[in-house]
Amino acid sequence: MSFSFPESFLWGGATAANQIEGSHKKDGKGLSTSDVQPFGAFGELVYREEGDFNIKDVAIDFYNRYEEDIALFAEMGFTCLRVSIAWSRIFPNGNDSEPNEMGLAYYDRVFDEMAKHNITPVVTISHYEMPLNLADKYQGWASREVIGFFENYAKVLFKRYKDKVKLWLTFNEINVTLHEPFTGSGLPRDCSEQTRFQAIHHQLVGSAKAVKACHDIIPDAKIGNMILGAIQYPLTCKPEDVMHTLTQNREWLMFGDIQARGYYPSYMTRKFKELGVELNITEDDTESLKETIDFISFSYYMSGCASTDPGEAEKASGNMLNIIANPYLEASEWGWQIDPVGLRYLLNFLYDRYQLPLFIVENGLGAKDQLDENGEVIDDYRIQYLNDHLYQVGEAVQDGVPVMGYTSWGPIDLVSASTAQMSKRYGFIYVDRDDKGNGSLERKRKKSFHWYKSVISSRGQALQGPKQ
Predict the structure, then answer these.
(1) How many CB atoms lie within 10 A of CB 160?
(2) Which residues of 330-366 are buried (b: 16+ CB within 10 A; e: fewer)?
(3) How many domains does the chain have?
(4) CATH, residue 431
(5) Where would you find the membrane-spanning parts of this chain (predicted)?
(6) Model pTM score
(7) Which of 164, 257, 400, 409 could pair covalently with 111 via S-S, beta carbons 3.0-4.6 A apart?
């Protein structure tokens, strides 16, 4: 690749507390909604007895091994690392009067370790979990009271880490409540559309209040949203398919529209009317939503298609989505369609819409990596996937899109969010642990580790263009 990424471009990886930390009750941590999802985001909720197995109780033990792992990230040349803070480490019940000092001190140590290696923290305030007590007692974000609990939590983080963290995200994939209400908002899975959208509204208000608090408490920080970038194409050029695709894409764009513009888009008026939804929106809500984000961040794993008449069209499922497969694309072992050009398209699409800096904070390939006879992981398939996507990011930068950085999902093997598996591996670093919790937790560099290091050190010039 003759093009070099800008010197300011941030290179790194992305993680989530409930998928890497373990130590699920250590140092005063309370139970979270993730702790009752031992089979992943779509699995049965299990309010366990002491001693019942949940692979996330240990995960990859990042809580105790963060120094080793951060050193490995630094060896690859990371200039940033996306992590999340476990809300129930700071407020074990969510509505506690005072924060848990041991939880706050833990993240101090993590950020200090990152600073030693000149790695910029990118911190998600809430990543697919909230204190379980808030889900049990308040029905999660269905309750307006949770807005205040979240605002207080965010303010505690900003005051504590204002000198250590300058890049923040509010909610991970905030649009996921449309597909998995318990994971996204702590709601019962059989909730009504009225409850779902009222909870989404409360969450959007909570996000906006956190944005204002960040701007007030850390004036030199930047805070963004995080959406699941679920771009869909028309299955055909039939006008009805094109119109239907616009409607389907608006389901997730609604979140970005509100967070970037500060008000509900007009197309939602008809949507709510058709669903029979009447939101309770106060004057304070309307005023709060006006505090808009500084940048757009998003995940991108796959694209899909939409049609008013899918007929026998094959379905494609992935990242909590169920959409029509694109006949021109191949898919991963888990059925997630692979579309590198779609990332360039999405970057241009979002910049055209919002005119804000963009940050790709999740992208990666889950695969069943195997150790070869030499005990190595030769993951050429992952290298190809990431190479092709990063090449298209470079193309988007040359298109004039201001891309802040790229954090691959799971730079070290971690517990899958959707299936709670270790065997669905994303990392540049292999972790010796299986789906049943067996293994030494030893870390081992994969072939992709050395490849990503060369990409970062060359500022993208090591990337290969598409095969002709």
Answers:
(1) 18
(2) ebbebebbbbbebbbbbbbbbbeebebbbbbbbbbbb
(3) 1
(4) 3.20.20.80
(5) none
(6) 0.97
(7) 164
